[in-house]
């Protein structure tokens, strides 16, 4: 099947040229009347007209598709821009509400909600700034998120936040849950892993492996004692991580050994993991 209309054009030209070259022999063909000659000429003219008509139709359809694609790109960009702005408005409203509440617990809960909204907003920023309308450079997106978390928690803390991120591309539907998992794990580590302002380190790695992508967040803090301090808050964070992992059809592992390690493995586009599970070794 020819997909290039220039190839079709060239082939048609060769066929017609061969027929025209053979025309003298056709005209000299011994027949009683000229019906055969006129019939062949008529067939050639019909073929020529059909070829021209096909070319015109192909060109028109291609121009229409290009126009529709351009319009869709504009609409998707505008949609992403509006979603991004609406998320920013929601964050501002919640932050204003937190400033006027008289209860620290409520203010902290609102702040955590704002952080999660910012994670989603940052993903739409990455789409809007990129060339691909439904794909995110995960290294760039998570890198921005790590910088945000470092500024959010690192100023009043003796904890070092390190990251090593491989370049990889994922869909928006994968990027946002991964960003939320990273944000939740890092936030919990800052809050609970290093009591009494102890020194420590939080390490984030993103590995682009053959057929899968692995995100790991680990710390060298106190881990999860039994019973855990602030157990309710941490339990919600782990439930959120596990729920997002199921949404991604990922392999999630939470390991409580020499600190806490949260790892997430997802399949790359067109690939499938051998199995999906939630492992909680706490």
Write a short abstract of this structure.
The chain is of the alpha/beta class. The chain is built from 7 helices and 8 strands; from the N terminus they run H-H-H-H-E-H-E-E-H-E-E-H-E-E-E.
Describe this structure in words.
The structure is a single chain. The mean pLDDT is 76. 22% of the residues are buried. Helices cover 60% and strands 17% of the residues. The chain has seven helices and eight strands, in the order ααααβαββαββαβββ. It has two domains: 1-133; 142-282, Heat Shock Protein 90 (2-Layer Sandwich). Helix 4 packs antiparallel against helix 5 and helix 4 (104-129) packs antiparallel against helix 6 (172-193). It is an alpha/beta fold and 282 residues long. Strands 2-4-5-7-6-8 form a six-stranded mixed sheet, with helices on one face. It has a two-stranded antiparallel sheet with strand order 1-3.
């Amino acid at each position: 099947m020819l997909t290039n209309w220039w190839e079709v054009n060239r082939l048609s030209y060769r066929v017609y040229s061969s027929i025209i070259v053979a025309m003298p022999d056709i005209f000299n063909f011994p027949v009683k009347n000229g019906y055969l000659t006129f019939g062949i000429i008529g067939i050639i003219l019909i073929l020529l007209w059909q070829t021209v008509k096909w070319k015109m139709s192909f060109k028109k359809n291609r121009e229409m598709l290009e126009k529709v694609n351009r319009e869709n790109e504009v609409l998707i960009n505008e949609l992403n821009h509006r979603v991004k702005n609406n998320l920013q408005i929601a964050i501002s409203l919640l932050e204003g509400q937190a400033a006027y509440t008289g209860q620290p617990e409520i203010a902290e809960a609102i702040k955590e909600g704002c952080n999660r909204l910012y994670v989603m907003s940052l993903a739409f920023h990455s789409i809007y700034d990129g060339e691909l309308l439904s794909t995110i450079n995960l290294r760039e997106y998570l890198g921005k998120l790590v910088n945000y978390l470092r500024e959010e928690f690192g100023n009043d803390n003796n904890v070092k936040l390190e990251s090593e991120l491989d370049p990889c591309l994922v869909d928006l539907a994968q990027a946002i849950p991964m960003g939320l998992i990273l944000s939740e794990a890092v936030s919990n580590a800052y809050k609970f892993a290093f009591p009494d302002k102890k020194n420590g380190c939080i390490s984030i790695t993103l590995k682009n492996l053959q057929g899968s992508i692995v995100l790991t967040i680990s710390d060298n803090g106190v881990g999860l004692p039994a019973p855990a301090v602030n157990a309710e808050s941490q339990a919600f964070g782990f439930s959120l991580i596990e729920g997002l992992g199921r949404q991604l059809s990922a392999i999630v592992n939470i390991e409580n050994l020499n600190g806490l390690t949260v790892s997430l493995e997802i399949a790359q586009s067109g690939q499938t993991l051998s199995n999906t599970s939630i492992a909680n070794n706490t």
